Amino acid sequence: MAGRRSFKTDESFLEKLAIGATGTRAVIADVQKQGFRPIELERGSASWKIWKQIKIKRLRVPDVLLLDTATRIEARAKTALEISMSHSESDAARGWDRGLLDGDFVALTLCRKTGQRPIDWQASPNVQYVKVSDMRRTWAQGSVFKERPKGAQEGFELRVTWPAAVSSADGQVTEIAGERLKLKRAADGRTISLHLRRKDVKLSALVSIGDRVFENQIVASVIPVITTLPSAKPADKTTYIRWLASRDVATRYAGAKALAFFAADDVTDVLLRTQDDDQEHVYVRLEAASSLARHGNPKGWQAIADSLDSQYLENQLETVIILGELKSQKALKLLVAALLDPRRHAEIRAGAAWAIGEIGQSKGADALIRTFTDLTPGVRIEAVRALRKLMESCCPPVVPQLGVGQPDERAGLAWALSRSGRFTLDELIEVCRKDDEARRWVAYVLGTQDADKWTVQLEPLRESDPEVFFAVTVLWQLLRSWIADVDEF
After folding, report:
1. CB of 75 within 8 A of CB of 23?
2. H or E segment at 113?
3. Please, which residues have CB within 8 angstroms of residue 250's CB and are 6 or more apart in sequence?
4. Where are the domains of the chain?
């Protein structure tokens, strides 16, 4: 039972990460539609990858940076829409506005569950933004609510809420009077009435009579809420070079990352100085090396290769993740070497496998398949997941290996082919001619596909190998039975 509780804890954590990543991706998509040029500023904020053994202590920075205006955005995904932040009264590093500047924005996105898996979440297309300076002003005025989670003791984080009224449906504003705001619901014409006071805090209407509103729109609050970001002074390389001179480490980090997108001699010079500064924070130096590598600078690549051999596992893992972002042949070569090096820590090798999948080049497939016989915990699991991702992105020609590889290699190949669906029936029929083990794995691959879709396509298999055809239909029957998903507890 202890193992199951641990699994549930991992599932719960994964779900929280997935909600956050879904929100960040929605913000990036929204600002792109508005004409901005966003990048992920906080590494991993748009991903739900969990690193279990090596903990990376990253700098606290907002999730998204708009390169063209130097605007930073903290993405906050919500399962129930409200303007809220977590806050610690005992740890300044965990204050609600730690790492945020007055000009930054907090983006609010509603996320809904769409399936049974922890990662099955979808964000509303409507993203709403509040400015940090406005949040600080009302915080200082005491116009916020602080709530301690049930059961929490002193020192636990609070939930701080900026009072607001949220529309429960699409509609149109029909009345704003006194302490009430009325909406006519679009679906049935029914009137919805919202109070403009929360306890002793008066809310200001953010809409006017006649305005159309969408479901979960914040229509009144103690702070302004917008759906379109305001125009701002354009940013260029000079802006981010100046950031690299800041006394704030998070600002220097953002500057180093942004300069990856501004190739110029003076940019190269300042990045090299940052990369070679022994007194600089290691992650700022590594980000400078990454930007240089994106520019094709050999000194940047050398610094990344050196970091991959750092004495600290945290730095090695961060380097592996960066290599997955660089998506180049040089990056792939370094990752393959790390993956196939049995002397390395298991999670570094697993991370290298994951990063190969992120790069999405078919040349990485052979290295991934070679690790399917590796018994190092976690490595071949991450490798087979990465192969599946390659199957979906570039579809390397791996089907023939299902008939010639070692048993564990065939198992991994069959799983990746099954989940990706990137194969043809003719390819599998050819594999069946190799040996009985190949035939069993072909039965597995086909038997885990959608029976309704494949039944009419299997006549050639019935004619060429009736036994495999029979095995596939039996597997379909078992997997479609009502007992397939029954659990004992």
Report:
1. yes
2. strand 105-113
3. 59, 60, 61, 99
4. 1-136
